[in-house]
Amino acid sequence: MDFSHELIVPEAGFPFKLFIFEGKDGNYYRDRHWHRSVEIFAVCGGELEFHIADRLWHLTPGEFMIVNSNEIHSVDSPLPNETIVLQIPLKLFENYYTGEQFVWFTHEPGRRDDRFMELIKALYRTYSEKPCGYDMKMNSIFYQIMYLLVKDYRLTEADDESVRRNKNLNRLSAITSYMKENYAGDITLEEVARVFDYSPNYLSRMFRKYAGITFKSYVQNIRLEYALKELESGKYSITEIAVRSGFSGSKALARAFQKKYGMLPSEYRSRMSGSVKKQKD
């Protein structure tokens, strides 16, 4: 299982981040990951699939998914879709915590789902059109969404195991953020353990137990994610990308890339170039 931590940065001037899902064109899969913010996917067209814990959720137009803070999940969008994503920093819910930095929302459909979807759509429409005073209108809509979240979707009881897991994933979030900042260097388990004042054995167990992945595999996944972005940009050669991403060379990158994505970096770059050319034509 390959899990990773995703860092969420709020929209400039607003206490949230709002955008159209990056998998809107289809043929997209986001590996299992987690983040400290609450994330809402509102499907307006097409379909999406979510894997959360051991359950599969299939979303169709008019449905949405609330992904909790530190909830490990993956997203699959094989076909084109229209999905609005709203990401809310966990801190905004601090008055409603049911445990230590812990708040939890249900995934089950609620009686106010139609109203909730209307508000998400209105928020994005206002953001896109930017009428006079749109910033005040957006904040007004956003806090109506927040009200429904805490009133109709928040669970008021938390079990000890969920709170404990949340606490440990919070710790891992800080560690993985550090790793993402230093992925290009010779980053080791011993070095990261020293920085965060853990023993290497304890840190290794934390990754296995709470993130479901080894430290070494996590580092490699980070490097592959950045290599993928560099390949898409077309700015550097594959050898340069390997070095910039922290691999020992192009052969090491090729082995890891093929194992994870089922093709060589050169094949992926060719496919991307062909796709861009087709769109231009």
From TrEMBL:
Coiled coil: none annotated. SMART domains: HTH_ARAC. Residues 173-271 form the HTH araC/xylS-type domain. It comes from the Bacteria. SUPFAM superfamilies: Homeodomain-like, Regulatory protein AraC. Pfam families: AraC_binding, HTH_18. The keyword Calcium does not apply. Keywords: DNA-binding, Transcription, Transcription regulation. The keyword Kinase does not apply. This is AraC family transcriptional regulator. It comes from Ruminococcus turbiniformis.
